[in-house]
Design a protein that fits this description.
The chain has strands at 29-38, 48-57, 70-74, 77-81, 89-90, 96-104, 107-115, 120-128, 136-143, 149-157. It is built from no helices and ten strands.
């Protein structure tokens, strides 16, 4: 027959944003659904932490993040999941890419995951120093093996998102 490409409008309960899974293969998209930040006084500044989770979609879908360097930015600070064998791996064979415990020069990523099939993500950075207080821009970026660039910014991330 043929292909049909169209645009539709959906009404969601309580006018909530559409789930990111509907945008897979259409556009890059990131939305935070939960956010928590803990900062300490200057004498304990190496104990700052941040946790962000939410929804994510990829224009170039499906995405294989195995061994791909993914960079997270909070304001001017960068934290990266390294490329290669010490980076993301597909934990279930279905596109849930997981990373645990990497201590680097720019901070300590306790854990991170990007679930490509469900369109969700989480990043937990802890025991770092002098994180800027909200609001700050939060960015997720990477270049996949096919040289497709993904870089999405959550502008002015702050409360009142639901807490963990």
């Amino acid at each position: 027959m043929g292909d049909y490409h169209g645009l539709g409008i959906a009404q969601t309960p309580n006018d909530e944003p559409v789930n990111a899974r509907f945008l897979m293969g259409v556009r890059d998209y990131v939305r935070a659904t939960k956010f928590n930040m803990t900062t300490f006084q200057p004498d304990d500044s190496y104990k700052d932490s941040i946790k962000v989770s939410g929804q994510i979609a990829f224009a170039n879908y499906p995405v294989d993040l195995t061994g791909i360097k993914v960079t997270y930015k909070w304001g001017s600070r960068s934290f990266s999941v390294p490329a290669g064998d010490n980076g993301f791996y597909d934990s279930n064979g279905k596109g849930k890419y997981v990373f645990k415990g990497y201590s680097g020069y720019s901070g300590y990523i306790k854990s991170a995951y990007i679930d490509v099939e469900r369109g969700t993500f989480l990043i937990y950075i802890r025991n770092t120093y002098s994180l800027s207080t909200p609001p700050q821009d939060f960015t997720i970026s990477f270049t996949d093996e096919d040289d497709n660039d993904f870089s999405e910014v959550l502008e002015d991330l702050r409360d009142p998102l639901p807490k963990y």
